[in-house]
Specification:
single chain, about 450 residues, mainly beta, Neuraminidase, 2 domains, 6-stranded mixed β-sheet, globular
């Protein structure tokens, strides 16, 4: 018998095989590039105690798990969305260190965050599972987003030698959607070296020890007004900048333009030391986490505080208008945030990886890592969240809306891709290959069946 692969009957067989593989091909064409799967077996390691009327809502934050025996050795990191009863709602996970930057709710169902392989900027729609990268834009500590121009504002730093000394300076950079810098503001041009910390604070950059001059750690961008508020931890000062002209409008703090007043109205040198996350919460009122690190009146004071500072731009005075000072057992030399909650309470992030067993504070019963403290406007502790030794939190974002309860929460998973094939997801490649194999097997089986039915030629 003479066999012809492209005979009329065999062409019909190929057509049948192609039709059989169409459902698989259609599935591949419709499958999303980001998909969801059940949450891993992860439980938020947190103990809560309620003392009064506390806020009921949802939080987003980066949670870092470090080795409890070597507390600065990272194990894993989690981007967590949980409710105030510590129920896990959504989760992202990263091996090692990540999510040590801004996390903010920028649109319904969407978080902006930094992390995952560096301090890169991402948008995570936790409702759909989609993750969008902002063209590999990387910055440290903080980022803010302008949805009108589709640009981000973040912090970069660099080393510059001045009179034989190497300094680490910060820049504020606005990036467009293609990752190009469209505006840059350099601390070297506006903040004099006379504001350097008396403690000669240093950092290591590329195996070189340099003076860490400004150590910028927070931004607040009023892009419609062309105003940027900018905090420098090591100068104990925050600044108001005109983005259009680049002018420094004023500075407030140890090296500022304002007269600083204590609770009795007496002038003081500074109202905070080494603080984090300075943000305006109402006109002329700024909230911050006062780490009390590098206190020039007493370096060993070590009493971190949640506080708000009210300024008067007419008479150029500033004073602490609300505060809650933690016991020494909660001292947090690094990290931290204070935020207002929708019910008027404040949430404080005493987020360091370790806090010692309290001897005089009855509400701390173990050595802890990060501790979240909710305090009402009267300064009364109403709720406490305690994490184990070796677990840390940099910042927290109280979400402005309640998320729908999900009996089976989902975590977003980004499939691997094949760069050699133009970034096609590996899952799609496997599905296409499977379709080809299915079609081939069908053709072979049908051809074999036909040959068995043909009479032998004598």
């Amino acid at each position: 018998m003479k066999f012809c692969l492209f005979s009329k009957s065999n062409r019909r067989l190929f057509g049948v095989a192609l039709a059989a593989s169409l459902p698989a091909i259609l599935f591949v064409s419709l499958v999303p590039l980001v998909f969801s799967e059940p949450l891993p077996s992860f439980t938020i390691p947190c103990r809560t105690t309620t003392y009064g009327e506390s806020w009921v809502g949802d939080y987003a934050f980066g949670l870092f798990q470090n080795n409890p025996s070597h507390v600065f050795v990272p194990v894993a990191s989690y981007l967590v969305i949980m409710d105030s009863e510590v129920n896990l709602l959504h989760l992202r996970e990263w091996a090692g260190s990540s999510y040590q930057g801004e996390v903010s709710y920028i649109a319904p169902g969407t978080l902006l965050f930094q992390g995952e392989g560096g301090s890169y900027v991402h948008f995570w729609n936790f409702s759909s599972g989609n993750v969008t990268d902002f063209d590999a834009v990387e910055g440290h500590h903080d980022v803010d987003y302008n949805p009108i121009n589709n640009t981000v504002l973040t912090l970069n730093n660099y080393v510059r030698e001045v009179n034989g000394t190497s300094y680490l300076f910060d820049t504020i950079v606005e990036y467009n959607a293609t990752g190009s810098a469209v505006w840059v503001w350099d601390t070297y041009d506006h903040i004099p070296l006379s504001q350097q910390s008396v403690y000669n604070l240093t950092s290591t950059v590329d195996n070189q020890t340099v003076v860490d001059f400004t150590h910028a750690n927070s931004l607040q961008w009023y892009y419609n007004e062309s105003i940027v508020y900018f905090n420098c931890r090591h100068t104990n000062t925050f600044y108001k900048i005109n983005q259009t002209t680049g002018d420094l409008i004023w500075s407030c703090g140890e090296f500022g333009d304002f007269t600083l007043l204590d609770a009795q109205g007496n002038q003081v040198e500074s109202l905070w030391y080494g603080c984090h996350d300075v943000k305006q919460v109402e006109p002329n009122v700024f909230i911050m986490f006062n780490n009390d690190f590098g206190n020039v009146t007493d370096f060993n004071n070590e009493q971190s505080a949640m506080q708000e500072v009210t300024i008067n731009e007419q008479d150029m005075t500033a004073y602490v208008s609300w505060s809650w000072t933690a016991p020494k057992e909660l001292y947090s030399a690094y990290w931290g945030e204070t935020a207002r909650l929708p019910n008027g309470n404040r949430i404080g992030v005493f987020g360091t990886l370790t806090h010692p067993l309290a001897q005089t504070t009855p509400y701390l019963v173990n050595d802890t890592g990060a501790v979240l403290v909710e305090v009402n406007p009267q300064g009364e502790l109403v709720k406490l969240y305690e994490f184990p030794h070796g677990w840390g939190i940099y910042r927290i974002e109280p979400l402005p809306v309640r998320l729908n309860p999900t009996p089976s929460p989902t975590a977003t998973v980004t499939p691997t891709t094949n760069p050699a094939l133009g970034g096609i997801p590996t899952m799609c490649i496997y599905a296409i290959l499977a379709s080809v194999v299915v079609a081939f097997v069908i053709v072979v089986i049908m051809l074999y069946g036909r040959t068995k039915k043909e009479p032998e030629v004598q």
